[in-house]
Amino acid sequence: MRIAVEGCAHGELEIIYDSLLEVQKADGKKIDLLICCGDFQSTRNLTDLKCMAVPDKYKDMCTFYKYYSGEKVAPILTIFVGGNHEASNYLQELPYGGWVAPNIYYLGYASVITIGGIRIAGVSGIFKSQHWMQGRYEKPPYNNDTIRSVYHVRNLDVFRLKQLTGSIDIFLSHDWPRGITKYGDEKALLRKKPFFRSDIESKCLGSQPNMELLEQHYPAYWFAAHLHCKFAALIPEDGGSRVTKFLALDKCLPKRKFLQVLEIQHDENIPLKISYDLEWLTILFLSNHLLSIKSGTHYMPGEYGSGRWIYTPTEEEKQKVLKKFNGDLEVPLNFTQTVEPYNPEAPKGFVEPATLQINEQTTEFCNKLGIDDPFVLLQVISGPTEKKYDMTESMAVASCDNVIESSEIFSESEDEGLCNSTFDGDNSSYTVHSLSGATLPSPKRNVDNCYINEEISSKEISEPSLEESVSTTNIESPCDSTTQGTHIEPNYDPCPPLVYDTLDDKFT
Ligand SMILES: [Zn+2]
Ligand SMILES: [Zn+2]
Asked: What are the Polar residues biased-composition ranges (predicted)?
């Protein structure tokens, strides 16, 4: 399988696809999958644009709406995790993942899928300690706070990812695992990004939960974005034999290293379609009662509590979930539009504020698995009808555009020479790192050394027997989980909030 990995997309889908088609044309080899590591900007219309936490000057419709409306079709199967610059109202419709447009699949807050037998896990958003233990209480229209907290990673999603067993081939995140820089050419990174120094020295650069996930699973590859530079690292397991190859890529801009193409061996007998991961589905099912839609502190179960605290499923539990899906784990092609797409011809006028939309894809998934859609729970709390448009809320949303975000200061020249010491060279790969206007570059072979040299072996998706009967599991109230026994939460943030947290918003 030939995979293209993209750093931040920032809505530039047309440019990215054109680049990839150019790469395909150049060497005659099909690219099977595009992976995007966040800041995807799946804005369908001007209302979605208002839900992005960026200053007005950066609010550009870009080109995603064309793929949403059907004007264009994504030429390559595309998957992505969310970042910090997203149409958060749209992504919230798909908390467990789903199609944002035909052939473009969002992984949800966290999830695991397989494509051609390759197991891919992902976590969306960025880490910020003050929202880590909150429930998923945000809903559109967002205010000055929720427009940002909505994309902060929550403990439930990481807790669920920690229940996984077995090997993971590819892990996707938007922000970097904390401490990752010491496994790569940190000096070269600091030459290009000297302002990272204080955060690196105080061990505040990146996400600690991401590093914990990496050090638990040691996926073959970990891809990330967010810091808008290319960086590669090799992380060996302490006392073990596993190794993770980490690669962060830049955002989609001329002369930036934002794309990488690699070959991964997969089982040719398994079609290159997206399937759910049975273990992940079972974890979702078993931990549904831990879902919270409250803003208060929300603990995950711990060793010293009274109830279950490990949700790694048994074979029997997995069988029951498989039965719910009638043994068919292929993700249905059930994309439907939930709002009117942007029409560039339409007269500019009043932009409707975003409302809470229930997405049929999520409804279908939740009904099948027997879990809750957080938006439905929020709707229940809000009452059966959406409240009328509130002018003060609208103004709050508008006013957050005034928050200073200085992505401009990062519009520096190409990170030439960055991270050239970690991965071995590879003849079968190249990085696309230059784009300007209509002239697309021919790919250069061996243009950098940050490439990944190893093929990963394919996996069989085991298809357990379907003969066991389905048991009916009661779903507890999603708001009860804070009452569960004694819990343990790691103290993640010894870092002063001024250092890394303020940088979050600078990185577009
Ligand atoms: Zn970002
Ligand atoms: Zn970005």
From this structure: 470-486
